[in-house]
Design goal:
- The structure holds 2 protein chains of 2 kinds.
- Chain A contains 14 helices and 13 strands.
- In chain A, a hairpin with a 5-residue loop joins strand 12 and strand 13.
- In chain A, helix 1 packs across helix 13 and helix 5 runs antiparallel to helix 13.
- Chain A is globular.
- By secondary structure, chain B is an all-alpha fold.
- Chain B has 2 domains: 43 residues, no CATH class; 185 residues, no CATH class.
- Chain B is built from 11 helices and 2 strands; from the N terminus they run ααααβαααβαααα.
- Chain B has a two-stranded antiparallel ribbon with strand order 1-2.
- The chains are: A alpha/beta, B mainly alpha.
Amino acid sequence: MNLLTRRGFLDQTFRLALASAVGAAWHVPLFLRRALAQGELPSGARKLLFIFLRGGNDGLNTLVPWGDDAYNVQNRPSLYLPPPDPRSTAPGRMPPEPDLTRSIDLGNGFAGLHPALKNLGPLYNDGHLALIHRVGYPRQSRSHFDSHRYWENGTPRADFTSSGIFYRALVETGLHLGRQFPAVSVQSRHPLLLRGPLAFPNLSDPARYDLLGVTNNGADRAKILSALTQAHQVPHPERDNRPLLFGTGDGLSTSIEALRAIGLTDNNFFDTDGTTHLFPIDTASNQKGFSSGAFGFFRNLKVAAQVLAQTDAVVAGTQLDGFDTHDSQGTLTGTHARLLSWLGWGFYAVRQYLRSVAPRLWEDTVLVTLSEFGRTSIENGSLGTDHAEASVMLVAGGRVRGGVYQCDGNSWPVGPAGAQFSVKGRYLGRTVDYRSVLGEVIRKHLGATPAALNRVLPGYAEEAVEHLARGGVAPDGVPIVGELGIL
Amino acid sequence: MYDFTDPDLSPEGRLVRACMDAWEQPGPDGRRGNLRQVLQTIFHSELFRSRAALAQKVKTPLEYVVSVIRAVRAARPEGGFTADTDGYDLITSLRRLNMPLFDRADPDGWPETGREWISTAALIERMRFAQNFLVAARDPLKQRDFGITGTDNVCDPVALLRTRLSAEQLRDAVAVVDCFLGLFFPGEGRANWGPDRELAMAFLNSADGGVPNSSPFAALVPGTTAYEGRIRGLVAFLLGLPRYQEQ
């Protein structure tokens, strides 16, 4: 009897989906083949940390196109950030002591940073931070729900891709093999980014990654753990899920020990002054004076960074909620500024932390932000902004080629008919596909072969259609630039 | 896709066909589309009832949580039950298990495949649920683990044993282990319990430190905290077994 089990069915479906993607892999562009031949494939030590900015980050007030006269106080009465003063004296650098009542100059004569992001200064000035404007995808969805999915599954407008882009980046490169923690998310729910047919752990509460015991302060915890670990090693009759169940439980005590050894509850990580905690996870560690709403984010970010730095994890990440600023978005202070200040410090803290663990770690790590869409170029009637299209991505790391991308006087059409209104006369239009940014990271940093990359991002190698690698006119008629050379 | 005219139609195909017939067949009210008939067709099918279909699916968190409570819930002779929940406290547990009740972010329904549910973190959280459930209501550990509430998921496995075993058997490790294995794994033959049974016996006969035979079960007196703690630990262990994740 040939029983078609549910798992078997899903297996087949998944393989079929992959097979159709592989079909296109023969059209490997020449430059990818060359990269491959030159041995650009990095070692397995490379790591990726993601932060998903949920709600749709207002890119125009994150990376401010102050050189565009359509970015003005008429269009953004309560949100407008004045142009920088002083201007940077060195190209590609931020001034050492910027005026924090204005956007901060980035030294390209066009773009400024929200002053709440001032802590990005050291990364930017070291050339370790790429600020990429106008990132989106074809037929951009302005629904949170749909756009989360497309950013996470890596296939715009394909609702049924049920695995995540980082999941596939691992599995298709084989980077997950033999690892105790291939990919770990630290947030309330397991994000689609890391979901797929193999379950990677999500730590909704890192403090709970241990057994409990049943009596008296967990006196019998170790006994139960030992018995359960043994119970996952005994011989057993075959069942569909037993390889999975027994295999997962087999490593239980070692993985608990591994995470315990890291000290996920430790927070003795300080800035260079030796007193400022890098991760403000409670009042005692909050020398930065953030509002208490930041503690959860920093707790998760700290654990993600710890797992990334001290286990064999390749991918780790978390999210920051609250970017859906329909009303009272705020300018120098307020909701948006608050979130950006956490993000800016978070990037700074991760770099300091990784370097303190091992100087090489920062060289081997890429930090990336994702957000489902940007926000309307013109402020709404509630002192906020509404869902729009293209927005900003931040990519940082020791090997990242820092700078401002797609927000400069040469590429940015200014004025009332310019970039800010290029879609439906309301929205900032895209010039970069998010898949090109992530694709470059997955290719160069995680070492995906062209064929593997094409399974991670279907159509990537099929240059004539999507133009994700080298740029061109996308199927919807919008010119895009392709990979930016950020790595 | 099935070709229903194919004489070698697969068992699944035959069942789909039978379900279609059941759907078309007018129900007691004379109308087509009687779901009870369709479900009955499935439940009585060879495919559903065959041993090969047993334990082939991993429980979802909701199924696991509910099955844990049901496994130790029996009517007490004096009234009430040996396990109980107010329901609300399960909401926290389900959130921790990544399955917030009635609150899935995507409209496509919760996954039914094991691989989407089972990771080390998920397994640990399942085991913790069983352990918290087995912690006595009076023990501060229960509340500390759960947060503010959490004293409403309670059970008394010794009371359950008392409904099934004689006073003499209560002190017999073999009788106790077999009683629970029979309750929790009714579909498994005795022969398949072997290794788990041995582990359970070793568990019962060791003190909290886990040293084998450090504290013979026969020396523990029913009604004492030590006896109760040993039993609670055993049940938490059994409900954390890999095969208890299956249905």
